[in-house]
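Fold this complex.
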Amino acid sequence: MTLEHSRKNPKRLGILISGRGSNMLALAEAVRENRIPNAEIVLVVSDNADAAGLSIAQDLGLNTVVIVRSGRNREEHEREILGALKEHEVDLVCLAGYMRLLSSDFINDFRNRILNIHPSLLPCFPGLDAQRQAIGHGVKWSGCTVHFVDETLDGGPIIAQRIVPVLDGDTEESLSARILVEEHRLYAEAVALVVRGDFDVLGRRVIAKM
Amino acid sequence: MTLEHSRKNPKRLGILISGRGSNMLALAEAVRENRIPNAEIVLVVSDNADAAGLSIAQDLGLNTVVIVRSGRNREEHEREILGALKEHEVDLVCLAGYMRLLSSDFINDFRNRILNIHPSLLPCFPGLDAQRQAIGHGVKWSGCTVHFVDETLDGGPIIAQRIVPVLDGDTEESLSARILVEEHRLYAEAVALVVRGDFDVLGRRVIAKM
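Structure:
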């Protein structure tokens, strides 16, 4: 792909949220400030009609759609989300506090094109309450991870990580706040890398192209 | 304990090795340079008569003893090691590449007085070949951990950790070398902290006294 061609065809990002969507906001700011060159956010999907992130997205002028599960099974719910992503020709799906596990079918449709951010140095402390897990375990360093989503819980290939110290006086809240600052920086860096496409996935290793 | 009193009674360190003992050398240098104030190394125990660290220890003028297992069961072997440690009135046991698991009886005799160093950011990658595990998993940061030894594999309360980046071109060897530099610094810092004694163990958290 020539630079000229790629400039004409920015990567189309879809963001899935369930709550405040602070990482969605960080990505939107990064796109606006050209820290994620050659990308545009074409759709924000929330599975929660009350998500605070929805009004933030609307304030930013982003397309939003609410797709609640409403008692349907996962497949039916996901089919509607996939439909919306494909209708908007989404290239890359960024999970930003999206609180549902995705099925294999969903993941296969976007293999190596779904990113998630997690508030720990994976593989340590996957799952819920990662910061609380870190505090409880007594680690001296934690951080955040952006990874490709596969069928495992927070276990897909790691794209990028940032570190933060855990201080003696830390609570779950103070550590979470310190990690969140790095999450916002990290997610933009990782999405920019994936949009550039100059990496290889070798086994589990995500490595810059030589 | 007054400063005057503590100066008269340096903490007596025993170091257990099985191989080259590079962390033993690092501790010996740190004691000599007063980076571990108020401590002396009174005994180096090797369970391997051919350990390269033995001649290094002798060159340093340290007391050494070889206690091989020689077909005995673990309890008998450990009893001889414990006897040597107690004969030399060891306060603190530092494992430095000691390749055997310690029994509950041993650990109970030196509860919160046995330290180990491990070449990963625990709880990630416990056990053997931690650096290879880190490379294979594709993490972007690794490091080393000094922890109290309990009955779990590399799972006791964490005293201190240092971090190193994992680079795209890293092999197990290059990552191990980068971590080893930090191990030598970290072990001295952690032993100095434990010798000072100004910390509390709250659950799994090792926290500086207020």
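Residues 1-6 of chain A have pLDDT under 50 and may be disordered.
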